[in-house]
Amino acid sequence: MKDKIMEIIEKNKGLVREGFVADYIPALSKANPNNIGVSIVDLNGNIYNVGDYNEKFTIQSISKVLSLILALLDHGEEKVFNKVGYEPTDEPFNTIYKLDFNWNKPSNPMINSGAIVTTSLIKGNGDEKINRILDLIKVMTGNPNVSIDEEVYLSEKETGNRNRAMAYLLKSKGILSGDVEEILDTYFKQCSIQVTSFDLAKIGLFIAKGCPLETKGLIDNARIAAIVTAIMFTSGMYNFSGEYAVNVGIPSKSGVGGGILGVVPGNYGIGIYGPALDRYGNSSVGYGIIRDLSQHLKLNILSR
Ligand code: GLN
After folding, report:
1. Is 280 an annotated catalytic residue?
2. By alpha-carbon position, which residue is closest to atom 6 of ligand 1?
3. Which of 158, 252, 254, 288 shows the smallest number of beta carbons within 10 Å?
4. What is the pLDDT of residue 102?
5. Residue 208 maps to which CATH number?
6. In terms of pTM, does the model score above 0.85?
7. What is the mean pLDDT of residues 69-92?
8. How far apart are the C-alpha atoms of 67 and 70, rounded to whole Å?
9. Tens of pLDDT along 197-249?
10. Domain that holds residue 183
11. Is 10 exposed, middle or buried (0-12, 13-18, 19+ CB in 10 A)?
12. Is 80 a known active-site residue?
């Protein structure tokens, strides 16, 4: 298996040159585009780590999966989806203009505006929200050292005016309640959590197992896993989610830090790292690798 993963990395390496490391958040531009990490874990406890799987990077939009889980635990499905939609969008992750139409709420929890809403719904004051996100990652990964990259956090906070604009617009429409700056601060911090491809694979396996959380929320764990997996499948790769579903067929979530989280329900968790991004903000090499892995391991959930 490791040899096959190495072969797939080798085959896709050239895709690094087709992408660019994100620089709209200045601190992200320091990443080395040639780093490639691949981790796969399965239900039987097998672990396959190849390449730069120890390299830390910021989780970015993959944290949207975690804020959705916590919002669902705290409020249940109806209340959450009263404020954010179930539907995919063909707009990019940081789209804003449709929020100005008076009947609109964010299309789904995987674009920035939707995630700002789910983050606002996490219960807790001050640092409690971010600590709950960190605690959830620690439970999912068994890694007690998960922490925030302060430099990236400050860089996001300083330059995140587009996110600020959408948050204030959502507040003016009554979709967001609470202190806008405090919500944004949690959002910037959650995006700046450092992980490795191995951490992502373990998060993926946790969801693949049906989110076996000990805390009892307003909703069954299995239902949370089903919702999160479905939303990842339809919206997790932004406005590339359709083509990705056709070619990969694995519920996934990307982040502009270069990570891809994959969930194969009842089977595998996958984590991939490659910081050069394509025009959708997805890892260019990560896409090639997970597409080939899916083919080789027959992981496409819609193929028989
Ligand atoms: N922190 C980033 C932002 O808000 C997350 C976006 C992403 O990973 N697609 O712009």
Report:
1. no
2. 61
3. 158
4. 76
5. 3.40.710.10
6. yes
7. 96
8. 5
9. 999 999 999 999 999 998 878 899 999 999 999 999 999 999 999 999 999 99
10. 2-297
11. exposed
12. no
